[in-house]
Amino acid sequence: MSHTRSPEQTIPPDRTVRLLDTTLRDGEQAPGVSLSPDEKVEIARALERADVSVIEAGSACTGAGERRAISRVTDLELDARVTSFCRGLQSDVDLALECDVDGVHIVVPASDRHVEGKVGTSRENNLATTAELVEYATAHDLWVEVIGEDGSRADLDYLEAVAETALDAGADRFCFADTVGYTGPERTAEAVSRLADRGPVSAHTHDDLGLGVANALAAVSAGADLVHCTVNGLGERAGNVALEEVAIALSHVYDVETLALEELYDLAQIVSRATGVQLPPNKAVIGENAFTHESGIHTDGTLKDDRMYEPYAPETVGRERRLALGKHTGRAGVAATLDEHDVAADDEEIAEIADRVTELGDRGRRVTDADLLAIAEDVTGDDRERVVELLDLTATSGGAVPTASIRLEVDGEERVASGTGSGPVDAAVSAVREALGSMADAELESYHVDAVTGGTDAVVTVEVTMVRNDRSVTVARSEADITRASVESMVDALDRLLAADRRPLEPADD
């Protein structure tokens, strides 16, 4: 796969490198993130589909609820090794054993700052405790990894001594931990190289300096064969190194395959939903903009050659290419988007449509599919009849159960329906689906609330993307009422999708 290999590269394609995912432990330590047992199970199953080698399911010492969650994961009988994080305490190992995990990660201090300042012990006592803990864990048939906490700030001679002590006591591997994202790739390579001479080495890097991936690759180059990651780079402070970024970097640059790349985007979405942490649009691999093109030059080039402005095909990581509309959109982008919606226009009309899209973008507007199609209808003179139109909407949320009633005109027929939900928007959406019946089987792919103005006359913009029969459309509406903005955008999106099929609607379900 690699098109960038050079003789100077230090990670050969025949290297075996595995990934350890700690989203369920270190990722959950990100501020505001708390995963339920069901969410941990869902993420663990997604990690298994992605062929992740090791899943750190949590810290058994956290409490009874955490142990129940870890046990739920171990009960799945995954192919991946399932582990628990342990402090340097025998009781933590005992609690991990209660969860029937395959292995443990025993964290011990490596830097003097942690040995003396945090734990309050001596170097010698720390070595003795490490050996005792490893011997205890291995005696209970556990796979054992010892993590040298704050290893990037440790005296390297002492760090080697901690690793040697752990491995001599029976540990399966030792982990170099850049616990606070303190160091760079040169120091990482030096430390890991020395540790690799002692035995199997892992790397645990954070992204406080934006060097998480660089340090992980430096560690692999120096001999590490297991990298700790989290999905979407979740974690304390600036987060851990992102699993998806390490996986694609090793694959694309070095031809080293670690997992099923095509599962990465689905995995990212699952974790984002479960944690409530939205994906930054410019995030590598899994951000919305990673395979989105608006610039006319880029769009034109991509349409001619899909490798023109992309490092690798979006399908590699389970994505699809998207052409965005805006002030930079050129004729090629407009023509391609119209073609996706089966709208015919000649060269002169496309030029005028592109000019109007640019004008709309110049006013600071995000240009949606619906905007483009409305402009195209005006330019081409193709006045279409609406399939679905909103006539009236009433929503209340003052009672115990939010309710909504809606009146639609569907192919000239008036339909009235009501619905309930967790809030007025949810209730109104239920009413729309009830009114349209089974033919309105569109999926709400995304729902964003943007551009809330201040003051008592605040206006909110709701943007939705809906998908039906492999066709998608994005619509945005601005209103003072979020419920009305939501319903109008959804109804307009459904109208566009249904009009594209031009199939008669079935009667609404009773």
Quick recap:
The chain is an alpha/beta fold and 510 residues long.
Give the biggest beta sheet. 8 strands, parallel, barrel
User: Outline, from the CA principal axes?
Assistant: elongated
DSSP strand content: 15-25%
pLDDT averaged over residues = 86
Number of helices: 16
The overall strand count is 16
Query: What is the spatial order of strands in the main beta sheet?
Result: 1-2-3-4-5-6-7-8
Query: Which regions have little confidence, pLDDT < 50, spanning 5+ residues?
Result: 294-301, 503-510
What does this structure look like?
This protein has 510 residues and is an alpha/beta fold. Helix content is 39%, strand content 19%. The chain contains 16 helices and 16 strands. It has helices at 37-49, 64-74, 90-98, 112-118, 123-139, 156-168, 185-196, 212-222, 243-254, 264-275, 296-304, 331-340, 347-362, 369-380, 424-436, 482-501, and strands spanning 18-21, 54-58, 81-86, 103-109, 143-149, 173-178, 201-205, 226-229, 292-293, 322-323, 388-396, 403-410, 413-420, 443-450, 460-468, 471-479. The strands form four sheets. It has an eight-stranded parallel β-barrel with strand order 1-2-3-4-5-6-7-8, surrounded by nine helices. Strand 11 and strand 12 (403-410) form a beta hairpin. Helix 11 packs across helix 12 (331-340) and helix 15 (424-436) runs parallel beside helix 16 (482-501). The longest helix is centred in the last third of the chain and has 20 residues, at 482-501. The protein is elongated. Residues 294-301 and 503-510 have low confidence and may be disordered.
